[in-house]
Amino acid sequence: MEGPTMHALNTVLIALVALLVSASLDAQVRVLSPSQGQVLYPTRVVRIEWDNPTSLPVDLRYSTDHGATWEPIATALPTRSFEWHVPLLDTVGVLIQVQLMATAAPRVIAEYELPDSVRSAWWSGQSTGVVTLTRRGILCRIEGALLPASGGYLLGLDSSALMCPYPGARDSALVAIGGRLVVVSTFRGELGGALGGEHSAAITALVAHPRLPLVAAGYADGTLRLWNVAERRMLGSVLSQALGAVTALAFHPDGELLAHSGADGVIIVEPWETLGSSTNRIWLRHADNLSTAY
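Structure (tokenized):
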């Protein structure tokens, strides 16, 4: 995805002389034509068709160097088809890309001035407010869509502290302090008990499961740990296959998969229930190391 206004991409690989057509489909937009195996000829017209369930217009582009650079075919199309006059191209194949474009800027519904720069933030409880942790370790809880933040709680944490929601607890969060996971009250700003003992390496990434009372923590030595926060016990500890410290963690929205990355930019996606031993592991390569994942 390129740029903040692009919502979805769909790419079709088309060779200009007797070739296969391959498509990478997206949940929002689906290319209907050209179809698999269709041959395109330079200087002739080909009809590009796509399924677009949204009201957003699309841009069409093509690439002759495997996506390194792109040339426009048409922009801001409100329709679901376009007649493309195939140019004379010095190549055996071309990538055609369909992009959904956002036409409106994000709408600000509330704006707050906090006492410091924000390190992490999320909706609290039943989405009635926002919980934030600032760089200087100040916990702020903002309630109401139009009410300003009324101060905050100084937790005395350093700038490397991480925080995530406490799954299933509306007024609590988990804070990573060094190699420990500590429960904190977001309502009173009080630090509580720790989950298990302290690991020798510092926690460098932290994420809560979207449904279960489960938290994943990544450490500076490459360790990955899973915690059952309801029972306050560790479910398992494995060494990530990524290089160096764990820099980013993210659960899939359905809760089945966990993605983790290290300093080499490799993103590993695997079922959390078989973490470290799964045969269904997916390896992805990023151009740089990640610091945040969603």
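Residues 6-101 form a domain with the Immunoglobulin-like fold (CATH 2.60.40). The two ends are 14 Å apart (CA to CA).
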